[in-house]
Amino acid sequence: MSQDPVQIIARGPRAEAEAAAAALDGHPETEALTYSILEEDEDRGVWRIDAFPITEEERAAIERVLAGFGALTLNVETLADADWLAMSLSGLPPVRAGRFFVHGAHDRGLAPPNAVNLRIEAGAAFGTGHHGTTVGCLNAFDRLLKARRFGRVLDVGCGTGVLAIAAARTHSPVALGTDIDRVSVRIANENAALNHARARFVHANGLDAAAVRRRGPYDLVFANILAPPLVALAQDIKGALKPGGRAILSGLLRTQQRRVLAAYVSRGFRLERRLHRDAWATLILRRGG
User: Fold this and answer.
1) Among 83, 143, 255, 280, which is least packed by CB within 10 angstroms?
2) What's this model's pTM, rounded to 2 decimal places?
3) For 278, phi and psi rounded to 5 degrees?
């Protein structure tokens, strides 16, 4: 852990910011980095990357990668000696994504009666519902639910569990999530209990775990991870799905969607829809027979 927690901020034109984010994703020392990218000033065309290193080595790697993009200005801010994660979460507004309303404990009184209300406490896991990729997955799922229900749903890289919990709360009898991080699995199971959702979360690296195979094949697979593992898992996700089943893929920048899509089309998937939010893309794919 870094001696003092820091936030690294990079600002600049959209193209340069997106290229830098792709470089962070592709670099072996930063591919698991926690960061966000968003439009900070629409009038001036300024985009912003916020990165949160957890070790000195990761901090140095981030700074090396970002230094290669001359149009970006870099700042490093020391975070206060406090539970800054909890403090930042407490200030986040609730999120509406289709029929879903995602909120924390601080906003539970705002939950509308006509929505599927999901109380999600992030802790140290990814997926409060505010990130463009999570919102994209929920909006994509909402679109699919207008036509059908999904009996068996798998969420690969579940984070807080919000996607599998959304499936359980919309009457999927099987809603299973996996993550390589044991803390995320614990947090996801706690969130399932908070939401009275019959979703289960297990520690697993990939889709070959017995708990995953036992409940398959699936009607729907979520994978809101990073572009490189999405490409690497294309064949495994195909194997986990029933013919005609859907995959909702995110965690990728718009600049990465062509590469990810090519990996799935070559395995018999067909693109049904793509959704964009800020710099992020979400793909809805259908597995061929």
Assistant:
1) 83
2) 0.71
3) 55, -130
